[in-house]
Amino acid sequence: MRFSRGLLKIQVQQLYLYLLIMSTTFLISLHIVQYHRLQGKYVCKALPTYPMKIQRPPSTSRARHDRDVCFGEPKLTKWADCPQCYRATVHNLTKELHRVPRNITLFPRGPPAFFHPKKTKQQDLIYNVLIAPESVCSKTCPYLVAVVPSVIDDQAQRIAIRSTWGSVAKTHLWPFAHVNADVELIFVLGHQNKYTEAPESSLAQDMKLAQDEAALYRDILFLDMQDSYYNLTLKVMSSLHWVRIHCPGAKFVLKIDVDTFVNIPLLLDLLLFNEERLEMSVLGYAYVQNSAFRTGKWMISPEVWPPPFYPVYASGTSFVLSSSLLGSLAEAYEYIPANWTYSSLPVYLRDCYITGVLADALSVETHTLPGFLPDKPHWPRCAMIHDRILMGQTDFFKTWRAFYRFYGGCWKIYTE
After folding, report:
1. Which phi and psi angles does 402 have, rounded to 5°?
2. Once rounded to an integer, what is the mean pLDDT over residues 219-223?
3. Which of 40, 131, 183, 228 could, after both became Cys, cross-link 222 (CB 3.0–4.6 A)?
4. Residues 369 and 390 sit within 8 Å (Cβ to Cβ)
5. Cα gap 154→139, rounded to integer Å
6. Are the C-beta atoms of 196 and 228 separated by less than 8 Å?
7. 3-class DSSP state for residue 179?
8. CB 153 within 8 Å of CB 259
9. Residue 190 in contact with residue 225, Cβ under 8 Å?
10. Burial of 41 by CB count in 10 Å (0-12 exposed, 13-18 middle, 19+ buried)?
């Protein structure tokens, strides 16, 4: 009897060990198969002319004279000629992409006067650059330029971006894939007067930190301006103007917050697939009939903004602009005020100014896509792995590792 029990115990242990070995072997084999299947896979194969040609502009050109600039257009491969050039999930996202019409009933008696450019200049962009990103657009003609507003103290977050989704700008690599399109990454900084008693020393300290980081990564755009929440619109518009001048060959510009992870291959393929549709357009998560706050921190007086709603605008967390819009936006910015003074207090429109007020003044189309702003506060990480979400606020390194553990951590089909 004792012998039978001992034999049964040994057999159970052997069975457990056998199942463990078989399951481990299966998972490893699945990883190997998927690795070999995805190894060398090109994302955005629709750009076979990477990198584009560059030449020095003539002396009469209005472009920059100290660096070669791009010319010509990328040769794109259409879906009918190369269906394997695009990710299959682009079809699903494109079905959710639609144009948002302007709310013509917002102003029944005509738009307010501040939608029309003033006769005199209302405000200036920041043209003085203390540190320029030397490596950006110096040897390539990027298809996408990612502009990330940041502050001096966000160095750890900038390193996280460079180590994860932002690494595409330097390596053209994504987990198990090669990104065959040029992407540039720019971090935009300003100086902070942390010490009101000695602002000069504060600026010198900020400059020293920024110079050390810029020398190492060469992706810092340090503007000569005060860095604050209320100067964010000025900061973004000035950086867009810099991109317009220094990256004339770029096709699209992505404005993205420093705490947001971006699925770069999916975004690139989406832009390529809908390029003609998104020309002269704003792409993002559009707010329609978003109420104007009359109380609280973000209140705006009815005397400044009479309508009960803001115009259609894209979420400030992330949006994509066609590069052909940058010049018009910069010119309109100087003649359409971004803030007013009411009861001795400054009033700001913040997010809705660039993609709402300026876009409305220029009659720019807005395209909305839910994937730009997940509606779930804690969306499953596998949703991005399975190309259902373009970007989101999450742990960068955990998400990046999840891409490498595609079938280990997200092998089940994601369901809502």
Report:
1. -65, -30
2. 95
3. 131
4. yes
5. 28
6. no
7. strand
8. no
9. yes
10. middle
